[in-house]
Amino acid sequence: MSARRPNASIFSRSRRRGTPRNPGADLSRLPMGLDFGAVRIAEGIRAALACAVVILANEWLGWPPLFYMAMAAFFTCLCDAGGPIRFRVPALLSFTALGALTWMGFGLLRDAGLPVVVPVACFGLFCFAFARVWGTGATAVGNILSIVLILSLNQPLTGREALEIGGMVVAGGLWATLLTMVVWRLHPYRPARTAVAECWRRLAGLAEDLRGLLLAGAAPGRGGAGGEAWDAHGRAHRRAVREEIEHARGIVLDLVGMRGRLSLRGSQALLRLEACDQIFGLLIALAGRLEGTDDAPRLRAAETMLRLLRPMLIVLSRTMVDDTPARLPVLERAIARILAATTTDPVLRPIAEAMAERLRIAARLSSPGGYLPGGSVGNAQAQPWRDRVLGPLRANLSWQSATLRHALRVGFISAPALLVTLQSGEQFAHWLTITVVVTLQPFYAATWQRALERIGGTVLGGLIGAVLAFYMNTPLLLGLMLFPLCIVAFAARQVSFAAWIAGITPIVVILMELVHPGNSSWEIAGMRALFTVMGGLIAIAGWLLLWPSWEPERLGAEQREAIAAHARYGHAVLAEMLGDGLPADTDAARRAAGMTTNNLEASISRALQEPRSTHRPAIAAATLVDSTLRRIAGRLSALWHDPAARAALTSVEAEPWQRWIDAALGGMASGGGDIPPRPPLPANAALVEPLSRIARQIELLDGALHPKRG
Prior knowledge:
Elements (H helix, E strand, L loop, with lengths): L9 H5 L26 H21 L4 H14 L5 H25 L4 H17 L5 H17 L6 H28 L3 H26 L11 H33 L4 H27 L5 H27 L5 H14 L6 H18 L19 H12 L5 H23 L5 H10 L4 H28 L3 H17 L5 H19 L5 H25 L6 H26 L5 H26 L7 H25 L2 H6 L2 H19 L15 H21 L5
Helix pairs in contact: 2-3, 2-7, 2-18, 3-4, 3-6, 3-7, 4-6, 4-7, 5-6, 5-15, 6-16, 8-9, 8-10, 8-11, 9-10, 9-22, 10-13, 10-23, 11-12, 11-13, 12-13, 15-16, 15-20, 16-20, 17-19, 17-20, 18-19, 21-22, 21-23, 21-25, 22-23, 23-26, 25-26
């Protein structure tokens, strides 16, 4: 295997800049990388049609109120967080109605004077910031409504003007919503197919990185970095795959729930996703078996297995995106080679056989007649609307809620920014307040990242917009230029926030050039950059001064929840192996354990990015807990997929270990004292190694939580 060692080590891949969708292994770095796999051309075309067409219609008709329609259409596209249409359309229609009422109401209120306007506006901004308790879609709507509120204070409105602008906002919102429904209806199952295919693509990345560990000799005793490399692998890839699977699961179940019964496509998507999740569990089990081993034949067989697996996963991912049949004979030959490579290894053979079964299922699902529709899906039904609306509201009406403190922070910090904006008389001063409101986030790390990305993107985008506006010096050319700019900006919306801001800033510069033709494009770009920098600095200072909630204070709760979830996973594995549980229950426990570990890592990442050093020991301990929990999950998965251990396990041997795992991990989760002594190991050799590995990791976890003990 040494001859095949890659030129770049596994650690060079681990240090790459993460993205919001795939944060990477280095928890101390802001996830500000570019995710070019998130480009969405259809979204760009839809936004271009929504905004640029109205601008061009205004150039033909010469009716200025159409600018408000174009702006409303633009904002409505910004509110679209994606996902199933039954969630997208209500969000867009809610913004359309609330946006019109907000612009009309605050435009009429503007003449009431600053002592009235500023408190009412701050309360409105508080409400819009608090809307994030209802999820991603409500967060997007609340953010854009905040921008609408601030813009509506630019000038007072008469009753007639308010009705005219309100009508244009409604028209723009409905126009953009109509385009959303048309684009969706053209490809009703594409979001589900794309989301599931992305899971398989990320699974291929996990397999590639795991193979890289073997080629780099990362196992102890082979000259590699050992545990550090395995920890980086788990954080970078297992976290990303689990997040992607849960994201896709939500999209597929929403689609199925919307239709009431499992259609042909719905059942196909669910089965593909389930096969992907099971292969994910098998790869975790494989990693648990390989970490720490010096068995050269086993490592060679595993490397061959992973080398053949990666291209199969990529091919299956492409067939899902393109909705084309899989080449079954080619895939079957690759599966046969995997089985041949692992024939003589009693540890790898069962994992390879289970993986081959799931690969065949996925391949058959990509062939005509390879799947059949099922019946209704009871668990896909939505909650009653009262629970969906009032539940999150009640849960966050507490000072312990970071969202409530965030909304109050927005309301208070907006007051001085609004006073500056409204008293200055500068027509671009509203960018200061807008930047403050949209930069502020519930957590310091997110606020700091958003400020950096917004400032950098605004400066770059402003330069681009100023150059374009300088050379495109007629309204018609500027209107035509909006079409490609909207396509590029909205297509790259999910690539990164900085790229998104750099994309929409030229649009804003050109829109301002059209609305205020007497201003230089360079002046517009410069003023936007200046107010963005000022607003970003105010947002960071305001977060630090007003009720900061430091992340290390939340690490303990995340640790306890993760440990408790792994206790439930361990209990479920042993119960199912004894016939007292269902595989579905074990799968659910495995998923829950993975998600709590992801949440713990997100909390550690935020803590590492905060400007405080007093909590470094707690962060270091949490990082060690995270790594140990990843290993415990791997050992449990390996035990679950070990047929020899399953055959040897009896209730007499399993029940003491089940009670010990419950007591040890449950006690650590509840903050209890010493863990009980481990029970004696079974006499059967097939159980000694897996149970002793699990016990060692649990004892290491106890040592990480109580370093002074003993």
